[in-house]
Design goal:
Layout: H1 13-44, H2 46-49, H3 55-79, H4 85-117, H5 122-146, E1 150-153, E2 158-161, H6 166-211, H7 216-224, H8 230-233, H9 235-264, H10 270-295, H11 298-308, H12 310-317, E3 333-335, H13 345-351, E4 359-362, E5 365-368, E6 378-380, E7 390-393
Antiparallel strand pairs: 1-2, 3-7, 4-5, 6-7
Helix pairs in contact: 1-3, 1-10, 3-4, 3-10, 4-5, 4-6, 4-9, 5-6, 6-9, 9-10, 11-12
Subcellular location: Membrane
Main location: membrane
Region (Disordered): 339-364
């Protein structure tokens, strides 16, 4: 990451850099700390614990911890950059925490198509996500650290990659950070497109199923005249699933491109100064942006709702099998308003008996694919006729 202090430290723009860093890092670190405390309490409390028992949510917590480390070390390295052993560490830990958080979000995106489309055990994969990301991040940062390529860069006056040969420093930057950061963002987009295709296939399968039922005429005529397409019908699900990949692309790809550009063209100019300020703002804003996304996580919202109304939880658990239980699909239930449901109340009764992509019949037994049971899926919930239809997606949001 391109740090602003050094040769420009005596320029009037130094105060602008410092204000940008502190103005974004302080609320970001504060929000991230508050979110971790809140998540810890909700996971500790028996009333809300079951809502947070998700692989994707735990990966999100690991990423928040990495962002907390990144926010602190990035600030110290930016505002108090001096040569020495401390400068080496202030180059190592921001880079390591940055790669670890990017890897966690990439694993969150990868987890959904693996458990949903390929029926891979998500909970068993969790340790591989964490260990693989940690090991890869250590390799990409220990190697340049041990080689003396991280530390005080006398040319730029910053704690970052250092080398007397710009071409060599470019190779270290691309090979140990920029390429992998961009690859993780591209991987998230690929996982999102996989889920998008799965949702479309799900809808087409459901339409083919209804076309062969006794309600073929009514359903077909009703579905044929729907104004919204499949994508529009599931727009809430698609927006939620695609939110993290979108943010990752905006943050990771933009910072990687700016870092490579400034490494290749290090000369001082007004354009490079503005690029450096933009780069700095994106890095400093990471904890804040991802903290806001974590605050809107559906599982966390349900957990907080359970803490606020514990009496509703006891009432929910007292209902029959049709109601959600600790082992039911609870991750991202998205209620569908009547205008978005292709079936009337009579059709909904029949839909509840249909085999959906979220339900697999194996050895004569039906098992729900959610991460609480090491799986994930899209489920048309079996509710009473007075309930609204809903779709539950175990996803990385």
């Amino acid at each position: 990451m391109s740090l602003p202090l050094g040769p420009r430290s005596s320029s009037p723009g130094t105060q602008i850099f410092e204000r940008v860093i502190l103005g974004l890092i302080i609320p970001g670190v504060t929000l991230t700390t508050a979110m971790l405390i809140l998540c810890g309490y909700a996971a500790w409390n028996p009333v809300s614990r079951r809502y947070l028992d998700r692989v994707s949510f735990r990966l999100l917590v690991y990423a928040l911890v990495a962002h907390l480390v990144f926010g602190i070390t990035f600030t110290v390295g930016s505002l108090m950059a001096y040569p020495g052993a401390r400068c080496d560490l202030l180059s190592f830990f921001p880079n390591l925490s940055l790669m670890f958080s990017a890897g966690m979000f990439s694993c969150m995106a990868l987890n959904l198509p693996l458990v949903l489309a390929h029926n891979i055990n998500g909970q068993k994969m969790e340790k591989y996500y964490v260990l693989g990301t940690t090991l890869f991040g250590l390799i990409c940062n220990v190697v340049p650290y041990a080689s003396g390529k991280l530390g005080w860069d006398a040319i730029n006056g910053s704690c970052w990659y250092r080398s007397t040969n710009p071409a060599e420093m470019m190779r270290w930057l691309v090979g140990t950070q920029s390429f992998w950061i961009m690859l993780s963002a591209v991987g998230e987009v690929g996982a999102f497109l996989t889920i998008l295709g799965y949702i479309v296939a799900y809808e087409l399968d459901m339409r083919r199923f209804h076309a062969g039922t006794q309600l073929k005429t009514n359903y077909s005529s009703e579905a044929a005249h729907r104004a919204g397409s499949t994508i529009r019908r599931f727009r809430n699900i698609i927006l939620r699933v695609g939110l993290y990949p979108l943010v990752s692309c905006l943050l990771n790809i933009s910072t990687s491109v700016i870092d490579v550009y400034q490494m290749k063209y290090p000369e001082s100019s007004a354009f490079n100064w503005r690029l450096n300020l933009t780069d700095l703002a994106i890095y400093a804003g990471r904890p804040l942006i991802y903290g806001l996304l974590a605050a809107t996580d559906p599982s966390l919202i349900r957990a907080l709702r359970a803490l606020r109304h514990p009496e509703d939880e006891s009432e929910t658990q007292s209902h029959g099998p049709g109601w959600p239980t600790p082992s039911a699909c609870l991750s991202t239930v998205i209620d569908m308003p009547p205008s978005e449901v292709d079936c009337d109340e009579t059709d909904r009764e029949e839909t509840s008996t249909a085999p959906t992509p979220g339900t697999i019949l194996e050895d004569g037994k039906e098992r729900c694919l959610d991460e609480g049971q090491d799986q994930g899926g899209i489920t048309t919930n079996t509710l009473a006729q007075t309930q609204r239809a809903s779709i539950d997606v175990v996803c990385h949001i």
